[in-house]
Structure formats: C-alpha cells, structure tokens
Amino acid sequence: MKSSMIDFVSPSWSLGNVEAFHSYRADVTKYEFVVDAYADGVVHEDHIWDALVGLDFAIEEIQWHINHPGKRMVQNFVL
C-alpha cells in the first residue's frame, strides 16, 4: 500500500509533507529577498545578519554573503 505521506526529496534531505514544503518555500523566498535587497543596497549589513540568523545560517555563511553581495551559496535552498 502506498503511503499517504508526500515526499519532496533532494540528494541530501527530504520533506515529509506539504506543510514542510510550504515552510521551506517561505524560507527560500526570504533568503532570495534579503540577498537581493542587500546586493541592491536596500538592506543594511545588520539586517542581512538578522535575516540569515533567523534562517539558521552559520556565522561563516553570513559573512560569505556580506563579502559576496547578490551571490547565492549553492548548498542552500536548492531542490
């Protein structure tokens, strides 16, 4: 019998239900917004720190974003 659970799978992780997927997509949207806004000069460095800490980024990852405005880390938020 097939499980009623929906799996969204990537090579390194999976999402077990639709709610988890929607939460993930909301985080992706926040990530894209803050990275773009910082690159455009709309968001100050303090705000990118706050936003990325809220998305569970490590200090080294946040510093990388500050040093590379507008660039994305490949390992983050890729389905």
Report a brief summary of the structure.
With 79 residues, the chain is mainly alpha-helical. Helix content is 52%, strand content 5%.
Number of helices: 3
Integer-rounded radius of gyration: 15 Å
The total strand number stands at: 2
**Apparent shape:** elongated
Strand order, sheet with most strands: 1-2
Main beta sheet, described?
Answer: 2 strands, antiparallel
Question: How big a fraction of the residues is strand?
Answer: 5-15%
Instruction: Give helix % range.
Output: 40-55%
User: Could you say which structural class the secondary elements and strand pairing correspond to?
Assistant: mainly alpha
Question: Which series of helices and strands comes N to C?
Answer: EEHHH
* Mean pLDDT across every amino acid position: 76
> Termini, distance in Å?
27 Å
The low-confidence parts are: 1-12
Walkthrough of the structure:
It is a single chain. The protein is mostly helical and 79 residues long. It has a domain of 48 residues. The protein contains 3 helices and 2 strands, in the order ββααα. Strands 1-2 form a two-stranded antiparallel ribbon. α1 runs antiparallel to α2 and α2 runs antiparallel to α3. The radius of gyration is 15 Å and the shape is elongated.
Keywords:
single chain, 79 residues, mainly alpha, two-stranded antiparallel sheet, 5% strand, elongated, disordered N terminus
List the helices and strands and how they pair.
Layout: E1 8-9, E2 14-15, H1 18-39, H2 45-54, H3 59-67
Antiparallel strand pairs: 1-2
Helix pairs in contact: 1-2, 2-3
